[in-house]
Amino acid sequence: MTAAAARGRLLLLVPTTSYRIGDFLAAAERLKVDVAVGSDQPGVLEVFSRGRTVALDFKAVDRGVKQIVSYNSDYPLAAIIGIDQETTVLAATASAAIGLRHNAPASVEAAQNKHRFRSRLANSGLPAPWFTLLSLADNPAPQAALMPYPVVLKPLALSASRGVIRADNPDQFIAARKRIQAILAKTDSQGEAASHILIEDYIPGREVALEGLLVNGRLRVLALFDKPDPLQGPYFEETIYITPSRLPAPVQADIATTVGTAVATLGLHDGPIHAELRINDHGAWLIEVAARSIGGLCSRALQFGAGGGLEDLIIRHALGLPAGIDTGEQPASGVMMIPIPGAGVLRTIDGLEAARAVPGIGEVTIAIPLGDTLVPVPEGNRYLGFIFATGATPRDVESALRDAHGKLKFEIEAN
Predict the structure, then answer these.
(1) Where in the chain is the domain with CATH 3.40.50.20?
(2) Partners of 334 in the beta sheet?
(3) In this predicted model, what pLDDT tens digit does every residue of 291-318 receive, in sequence order?
């Protein structure tokens, strides 16, 4: 056991819907870290954690913090990591209560709430769209008449493009608003996040994602992903991520500077960062910054030499261990989040072996079991699966991902 781990246990806060628990636990095992899992349904994760689970309230932060403080009195903690969006505020607040390294909870909350995020950055000097906060209780017709189309309607706190819809005219605006209201009614959203939505200008351009690590306020860029598929709406289902980016070096430097300015403005200074941006002739425009790492299984597209995978770096940082980051010469790599082709019950999948046999493909993982119901965006927030590839160049990776995806055939029975 490492000296840092000997001082206390690592607590991972993991929703039972998370894709990522297995990868974090595997990284903890590689690092010989004493680890426990905090979950809203710990029994579901018992198979992963060998009895080291603790039941936590993820919705009521004050109660969740008390539960973690109580756990810490019996099992002293060295660090707390919120793996997914819904656990980052709890992780920061509990870390503050115990005296562990943490971001300010208000900063994490501002990054998580799309309206607070826009408001915090409004005077940062960064390129920013027009935006406004609208109440779902108000009459939508007057709202629709005043919009500077095209606009994008967004729930304040949902992730994975859930409920994000572009509208080009008043009729589309009213329909999108009604659809988002129905989506929110089926979630656990509370307060402002359940009763309001953000409206902002549609930002044209190429989209990228930056994966980074903040160390004492300094941003270390771990990877910059291109998203070669156009994300123009009306919905914004993500598909392919490829690194290294093919953007010119000055543009990549501008992206890193933009994200660095944004996290400093938000008050974030430690831990993983995932940022989404649009790039056009007017510069780099932030779509969002999250105080967490990339979602789904996408982190498997990243390796850092002897430093291991992304989860290894995050755990090392949280425990104050040497990072061992190696972002030197690596093969080009990428991931495709397999799009859900339609709503209904998933009956069969053909072509898996052919997809896995495509040169450059390292893994094809189906995340939704046969017999489950598929729900496309904007209502859905699950990926059908993930395809991973490596290659000599980003173009080779993109070609392999598209070729493998083309070999997959899905039988979906309509509800």
Answers:
(1) 3-103
(2) 242, 389
(3) 999 999 999 999 998 889 999 999 999 9
Tell me whether residue 233 is exposed, middle or buried, using C-beta atoms within 10 angstroms of its C-beta: 0 to 12, 13 to 18, 19 or more: middle
Enumerate the CATH 3.90.1170.50 domain ranges in the chain, comma separated.
331-415
What are the beta bridge partners of residue 254? Answer: none
The architecture (CATH level 2) of 130-201 comes to: 2-Layer Sandwich (3.30)
Q: What is the pTM of this model?
A: 0.94
Q: What is the pLDDT of residues 217-266, one digit of tens each?
A: 999 999 999 999 999 999 999 999 999 999 999 999 999 999 999 999 99
Q: How far is Cα 322 from Cα 189, in angstroms, rounded to an integer? A: 38
Residue 368 contacts residue 347 (beta carbons within 8 Å): no
Structure-token pair, residue 180: 């988002």
Assigned token pair, 241: 């991520």
CATH number of 331-415: 3.90.1170.50
In the chain, CATH 3.30.1490.20 sits at 130-201
| Domain formed by 3-103, architecture | 3-Layer(aba) Sandwich (3.40)
Residue 91: how many other CB atoms lie within 10 Å: 30
Can you tell me the distance from the alpha carbon of 112 to that of 290, in angstroms, rounded to the nearest whole number?
A: 6
